[in-house]
Design a protein that fits this description.
This is GGDEF domain-containing protein. By secondary structure, the protein is of the alpha/beta class. About 50% of the residues lie in helices and about 20% in strands. β8, α11 and β9 form a beta-alpha-beta unit. The structure holds ligand C2E and magnesium ion (MG) (3 copies).
Length: about 270
């Protein structure tokens, strides 16, 4: 009976499973080829310092220029790259590329790079960062690493030790997507972040929900008292910007300032400002 049932279950699920597994496998294979054939590129999105109204830096965002599918967004392939471990060599490429580009910019603004929790588990992330900085001859104080709660969720002493080591070099550590996870406050106590990026969900709600404004105010006050700065993500309207200024946010980033741009567009944004 179990066998018959098993066969039914098998028959019922197999086609869908097959598609999922095959898609994943084909994407994985594609990723390997893409890395070897340099189909990846970085887009750079500026963040603005609200006290000076000048660009304080650019976040590097990976793009995949797929030969058939066109530009693929990281949301579509970063999770598969993480599952397959491909994020380790890809993340290393992103770091080296971002440092290399930033070293050539006409102003010594910062460059932010997103790190995956997987890069902390496998591989020598601090050695990779140090090598990328050396190779590019980039001042470590110009590099900012964005991590999500997932990194600290792994909760091992080695993760914290790595973060402290990097911070000791002068590299800045930012908490990305703040407010989207479960115990964000605990994480702020676990590590002395330099910057907190307020998730764009709160920014989007600023004009429609009074509680979003209260939350943003509370976060900037908290960050202030912990010696951290704040960057609001996903700022799209002048109204949101006004609220964020008023709340004492340090920096803003979003389509209102600029969409992510190709590397060639970075220098012109920095010249004459
Ligand atoms: P993130 O680090 O939170 O990056 C912000 C995302 O929001 C980017 O999407 C950016 O293009 C988008 N965005 C910026 N301003 C606005 C706005 O005003 N409105 C809206 N609606 N969206 C805005 P993107 O480039 O698709 O990246 C998505 C996520 O993929 C990133 O979220 C980050 O978690 C991940 N990611 C990107 N590049 C890398 C990378 O090199 N390594 C790793 N591990 N993850 C990456
Ligand atoms: Mg980020
Ligand atoms: Mg973010
Ligand atoms: Mg986000």
């Amino acid at each position: 009976r179990a066998k018959a049932e098993g066969r039914n279950v098998h028959r019922f699920f197999e086609p869908a499973m097959d598609v999922a597994v095959q898609t994943r496998r084909s994407v994985e294979l594609d990723l390997r080829v893409a890395l070897a054939e340099q189909q990846f590129a970085l887009a750079f999105q500026p963040f603005l310092d609200l006290s000076t109204n000048r660009i304080a830096g650019f976040e590097a965002l990976v793009r995949w220029h797929h030969t058939v599918r066109g530009v693929v967004s990281p949301a579509a392939f970063v999770p598969i790259a993480e599952e397959t471990g491909m994020i380790v060599p890809l993340g290393e490429w992103v770091l080296r590329r971002a440092c290399h580009e930033a070293a050539r910019w006409p102003q010594a603004v910062r460059v932010s790079v997103n790190l995956s929790p997987v890069q902390f588990r496998s591989g020598d992330i601090d050695a990779t960062v140090i090598a990328a900085l050396r190779e590019a001859k980039l001042d470590p104080r110009r590099l900012e690493l964005e991590i999500t709660e997932g990194v600290l969720l792994q909760d091992n002493a080695s993760t914290l030790a790595i973060l402290h080591r990097l911070k000791g070099l002068g590299v800045r550590i930012a908490m990305d997507d703040f407010g989207t996870g479960y115990s964000s406050l605990g994480y702020l106590r676990a590590f002395p972040f330099d910057k907190i990026k307020i998730d764009r969900a709160f920014v989007a709600d600023l004009s429609v929900r009074p509680d979003a404004l209260a939350i943003v105010r509370a976060v900037t006050t908290l960050a202030d008292s912990l010696g951290m700065t704040t960057t609001a993500e996903g700022v799209e309207t002048e109204e949101q910007l006004a609220h964020l200024r008023d709340a004492g946010c340090t920096e803003v980033q979003g389509y209102l300032v600029s969409r992510p741009v190709a590397v060639e567009a970075v220098a012109p944004m920095l010249v004459g400002r």
